[in-house]
Amino acid sequence: MSIQLDIGAALSMAKSLLMAQGVPENVAYDVAEHLVESDRVGYASHGISILPSYQNALKMGTLKADAPLECIRDRTASLGYDAHLGFGQHAAKVAFQNAIAQAHEFSICALTLRYAHHIGRTGFYGEMVTKAGMALLAFTNIVKRKPTVAPFGGAKARLTTNPVCFAWPMPNGRPPFLLDLATSAIALNKARVLAAQGKQAPPDALIDAQGNPTTDPNVMLQDPPGALLTFGAHKGYGLGVAVELFAGILSGGGTIHKANHGTKGMAVNNIFALIVNIDRFATKAWAASEAETFVEYLKSCPPQPGSSGVQYPGEYEAANKAKNSQTIMLDDASWQALQKMGTELQVSIPEVKPI
What EC numbers are recorded for this enzyme (predicted)? Predict the structure, then answer.
């Protein structure tokens, strides 16, 4: 059973639930906007269903409702921020806005952000950058929590999902190229959503606590837990290690070694990103023409049997956003959790009909 919720109602509800916990209005709006957009583009694992876990983190003090965002480095083509365990969606949005402005002036901006509580879907910031006509390379690691991802050949978790994001603006009204993926085969929140929906994980995505392959996402919720696997075996593993080094060390937030493990309910992100002002490297007309020619070449490829044809990364999100222009969908378990949260916080929850 699914729940259909109006976008405006979802935004208002998410914002109200956050403000009822002492989150400032501007921060609550940025977080609510981010979560609803994640649902719109097809990533429920990073959508409003995650709000109850934020409530737990606020109660535990591992997430700070009104933490200040501190600029710790402002040099030519380089910005650095410390979020002091505040909401990552707000901290990252502000940091990327300022980095885009600096890239306008200096051609590029090397951006770091440390100690941000869960920045959410990195593709959101890729979309911000491409709307400004720029390109993005971003690496995000996770500290202050227990590892969830096994290294290649290992039977126990030693890494986290360590997402990477690459984004490029496309011409002629096309959606931006947007590659936003965890270096694990699936995201941890995806495993939670699958478990809540009673569905199986894909093969080669999980191992149980003894290191045996499994498709049961519930192993991630057990004690001791199983582990996620990296995508592409040793290739995803190598990329995950690169993310630890670039995001963890350059931001100053650290890597996931044992001293940086944390408690349940905590997820601290560190980011290293490079924002590139394409116009400073190639003429606007040539860059647009070359991108269009390349995409046409890709999409002219004959489809494999059973395939609907070639897409480039970013078209999936754009199609979902268009389909979900007015409403978003939630599973029943997530909706019940939000209703419970509303009752606890004395926040009015919209009336909806299951479909």
Answer: 1.1.1.27
Q: Are residues 172 and 33 in the same domain?
A: no
Q: At what angle do helices 25-40 and 315-323 cross, to 10 degrees?
A: 100
In terms of domains, do 77 and 6 share one? Answer: no
Instruction: List all residues 6 or more positions away from 26 whose beta carbon is below 8 Å from its beta carbon.
Output: 90
Q: Are residues 14 and 131 in the same domain?
A: no
Helices 7-19 & 51-60 angle (0-180, nearest 10): 10
Distance in angstroms (rounded) separating the CA atoms of residues 338 and 165 = 29
pTM beyond 0.90: yes
Q: Residue 209: which domain range?
A: 185-229
Residue 63 makes CB contacts below 8 A (sequence gap 6+) with 54, 57, 85, 86, 87, 117, 265, 266
